[in-house]
Amino acid sequence: MFETCQDHDFRPEKYFQTRRQFLNRFGMGIGALGLASLLGPELIFQTTAHAEGDFSSLTPKVPPLPAKAKHVVHIFAQGAPSHIDTFDPKPALAKYDGQPLPGMSGVAMQSPFQFEKKGRSGIEVSEVFPNIGDHVDDMAIIRSMWTDIPAHEVATVMMNTGSLRIAKPSLGSWVVYGLGSENQNMPGFISLRPGGGLPPGGSQNWQSAFLPGVYQGTSVNTQAQSVEVMIQNIKNPYIPLTEQRRQLDLIHELNEIHAQNLQKDALLEARIEASEIAFKMQTAASDAFNINKEPEEIRSMYGNTPQGRQMLIARRLIERGVRVVQVWAGGWDHHSDIKDRLKKSALEIDQPVGAFLTDLKQRGLLDETLVVWGGEFGRKPTKDRNGNDVPGRDHNNKGFSTWLAGGGVKGGTIYGATDEFGAAAVDKPVHIHDLHATMLALLGFDHKKLTYRYNGRDFRLTDVAGEVVNGIIA
Questions:
Q1: Which runs of consecutive H residues, i.e. helices, occur in 124-240?
Q2: Angle at CA 220, nearest 5°, toward 358 and 81?
Q3: Which of 56, 88, 408, 428 has the fewest CB atoms inside 10 Å of its own CB, making it the most exposed?
Q4: 419 vs 398: CA distance, rounded Å
Q5: Positive or negative CA dihedral for 428, 433, 436, 440?
Q6: Which is nearest to 57 in space by CA: 282, 269, 259?
């Protein structure tokens, strides 16, 4: 005789199902089998090579290759500074000044600025950058940059995401996806804006796109005078910290139950982690963004200006382990009156960026911090069609300059060249994808292998192109 447990009593009516019930119960399972073959094991089982455990985590990760840099500060000179008037002297333009140039429309325009040899390396830098120029021995200046389209919005997004068309993750999001962050109380990627409206391309420039939301850049308006205004809603005016902590702990407990009984949900995990960071930022950000805690001599060294405060905040963030800081330093769209307007734009950043490089070096942070400066494209060697009496320069995507410092860069280096007039890169051209590949290499990644599977395809920052510029790596 068998004793039958009531819970396991077999009764056919309990297992009878209509066709509709059968499809309702099993349809999703059948669909999931097909979905698994499309997504691949990386997302189903979370076995990526880049992130152990939960792939939507900010936990610090070891890069697969030897790394020379641990942090990135991208100082973006939005508006496209003229390379001919900053880091790429062209004396031949003086000879042709006011005359037509071979194969170009318009007439030549020599630079209104003098160039001076700086540092032990003797690299020539425009007089508009007396402080930045003092650091050329720590810099690799690429004089052969080029991009695809000379339109501000498209080229700005291209510089920051490597994409011309579809929305893709930003450089900062890719870096944090690969490396995590050394500070679990702050976002791994912070974008500093000096006030005003959004830049061309808006939030696309710091978006995470199809990467988990925890890698999204946090945009901060540094023109505000208090942390509470800089970072909106950083503090909860209704619930004290103790009660917020209890709420988050409950959410974590419920999420554990959900994960054990059903599955881990990447979007839910990212949302919870973002809430956790927001909670921790209430105290951490108040400290990091408060430059009044700096000694007076340090604040004076940077200058009491929007860009000065911005660069000082950038140093404080790097010092606290934030992985990527994007610094917006715009105002370089000089179609007219380049003599006065470019000098004014340069004056706004020269002291702050010079102080930033000095400060990093004194604190032993420059060797582990990759600093990059440059715009989205360059300028033509001819007078712009819009300003003959007080001329400027029109857009030029075929040649411009970018410099890198610290973080494993070979200092005192000039890489590549434009032609004798600065119209186009002719020696060792470097595309945006090449720049991104090089930055990732300095951080310890093969740009071809830092990928994320989305819509059945492995995406990467450099798309299907990009070559590492080994000539600027120490």
A1: 152-161, 171-179, 227-230
A2: 60
A3: 428
A4: 11
A5: negative
A6: 269
Q: Residues 333-375: pLDDT tens digits?
A: 999 999 999 999 999 999 999 999 999 999 999 999 999 999 9
pLDDT at residue number 54: 43
Where does residue 282 fall: left (phi above 0), alpha (psi -120 to 50 degrees), or beta otherwise? alpha
Task: Provide the H-helix boundaries in 64-151.
Answer: 92-96
* Domain extent for 343: 61-227+291-472
Q: Count CB neighbours of 373 within 10 A.
A: 25
Q: How many domains does the chain have?
A: 2
Tell me, yes or no, whether 284 and 305 share the same domain: no
pLDDT digits (tens, 9 = 90+) for 153-204: 999 999 999 999 888 999 999 999 999 999 988 899 999 998 778 899 999 9
For residues 398 and 425, the answer to whether their CB atoms sit within 8 Å is: yes
pLDDT tens per residue, range 255-264: 788 777 777 7
Torsion angle in degrees (nearest 10) through CA of 361, 362, 363, 368:
10
Contacts of 243 (CB under 8 A, 6+ apart): none
Domain assignment of residue 51, yes or no: no
Tallying the residues shown for the chain, one arrives at: 474
* Residues 240, 203 within the same domain: no
Buried/exposed code over 280-298 (b: 16+ C-beta within 10 A; e: otherwise): ebbebbeebbebeebeeee
Say how far apart CA 124 and CA 86 lie, in whole Å.
9
- Give the CATH number of the domain where residue 202 resides: 3.40.720
Q: 109 and 182: one domain?
A: yes
- For residue 2, tell me if it sits in a domain: no
389 and 304, same domain (yes or no): yes
Contact 350, 130 (CB under 8 A): yes
What is the distance between the alpha carbons of residues 3 and 66, in angstroms, rounded to a whole number? 66
- How far from the centroid of its chain's Cα atoms is residue 79's Cα? 17
Last residue of a domain, one of 258, 273, 288: 288
Tokens of 174: 């890719």
Name the phi and psi angles at 277, rounded to 5: -65, -40
pTM listed for this prediction? 0.83
Q: What is the tally of helices (H) and strands (E) in the chain? A: 13, 17
The residue behind tokens 């400066």 is: 373
Structure-token pair, residue 341: 């307007």
- Three-state secondary-structure class, residue 124: strand
Between the alpha carbon of residue 452 and those of residues 43, 49, 266, 441, 448, the distances in Å are: 9, 11, 14, 17, 11
What is the distance between the alpha carbons of residues 87 and 293, in angstroms, rounded to a whole number?
Answer: 35
